[in-house]
Amino acid sequence: MIGVITAFRNEIDRYLKSAGFRVVEECGALRFHGTAEADGVIVVEGGIGKSGGQEALERLLERHRIDLVISAGFAGGVTQGVQPGDLYLCDRLMAVEGPAAIWDPGSMLERPVAVDPNVEEQLRSRGIQFVRGPCLSVPHLIPTTSMKRWIGETFPTSIIDMESYWVAGAVAARGIPVGVARCVLDTVDQTLPEFAGGVVNDGKSHSFDKAIKYLARRPGEAPKLIRLARQAKTAGESLSGLLSNLIDCLTAQPVTKG
Fold it and tell me: Where are the domains of the chain?
């Protein structure tokens, strides 16, 4: 069975809907999505950050016999030219911990991730455009342009997230193959609205009513929220397409542990 771990449903909502997934179990902040049509796949939603991602994996392995794990979600761009909807299959994962003042390439954590060349070839033959490259996991949301630029200039990566290094490490420690799929949500030149930080801190998507209340207090943020919502739609559709094709390619061939 393939297990998919994601932070928020909207990151892969189109995939869940197209395959007929529904919530089959809830465990605290985690939601498990399953479907009879894709009985070889289980999706866990709610694995946010280091602790959330590792917790999602633990609960997943308690409940199912998993042969392969895919960590899928959005990423932030930290270099010029990276655009919303750009896809990455990550082959090198890095991480920094603690306050930003002590982040340094010399002390960052790092691990490789295998990308099956056969799967890569199949995806490209289907017209899926993606970058095979690195991702840096950071301990908290990076909302400002200045900090994104500094990360892109300091570390060997074009994208950042909050989970992939930690999920991949925990999976590898159990001898289970892992894949990491990321899609760019925001660009290096884009400062995120405060509302976005609230989503991450709360660990769940905000309702429409909460967004309206937020805008009533900060009407000047409306353009930023509208832009981010459009980018989330673009990124969600792009990531769902990659995930659907990736799982199709993986289930068409045997998965070997290692």
Answer: 2-251
pLDDT at 90 over 90: yes
Do you know the residue count of the chain?
Answer: 258
Output DSSP code: residue 48: -
**φ, ψ at 119 (rounded to 5°):** -65, -40
Q: How far apart are CA 232 and CA 50, in angstroms?
A: 22
**Residue pLDDT, tens place only, 206-236:** 444 555 555 566 677 678 778 888 999 999 9
Domain 2-251 in this protein, CATH class: alpha beta
Proportion of the chain above pLDDT 90, given as a percent? 74
- Please list, in sequence order, all residues whose beta carbon lies within 8 angstroms of the beta carbon of residue 30, skipping any fewer than 6 positions away: 44, 45, 46, 47, 55, 56, 59
Distances (CA, A) of 74 to 11, 101, 106: 7, 25, 26
Phi and psi at residue 87, to the nearest 5°:
-105, 145
Higher pLDDT, 225 or 162: 162
In the block, residue with structure tokens 């309206």: 212
For residue 142, give Cα distances in angstroms to 17, 78, 205: 30, 10, 18
Q: Residues 243, 250: contact at Cβ < 8 Å?
A: no
3-state SS assignment for residue 249: helix
